[in-house]
Amino acid sequence: MGKPKFVADGMLGKISRWLRMLGYDVKYSTKFTDEELMKIAKTEGRILLTRDQELFKRANSQNTTTALVEGSSDPETLAKLASLFHLRLDIDVSVSRCPKCNEQIAPALREEVLGKVPEGTLKQYKDFWKCPNCGQIYWQGSHWRRIRETLNSAKKLVSER
To answer: Are 17 and 75 within one domain?
Structure first.
């Protein structure tokens, strides 16, 4: 069996972005109804992620693979999901997906990002990635320290279980 794919309810935008960065396919919209979420999960073989206890119970009663997402912090929530679904908690940009639209990102040449990122960023960083769908550009800037800290905290929580 390949990597799990998910569909997430409207309360899970932040976790959806984390899972996408980690390379997991996550369908997410604040507009999905409960019925749409369950249908997507069943027809596309996705795991339904929700914080809604009623939706969790209803999905389970209809044999929809679902998980009640708990945790008061990103590391805690990521650790619980990693334990449940054997998720890898390392970012590998070769499989990362766009946090905004879920498309797999691809390496971008400096020439491609010229004029689309701040000049200082272009001077300071050499590796860039672009989403072929929405055009968003990514690089491993200063925010990567916080990303690594969050993932390391999640890994520590997983190892303590």
So the answer is: yes
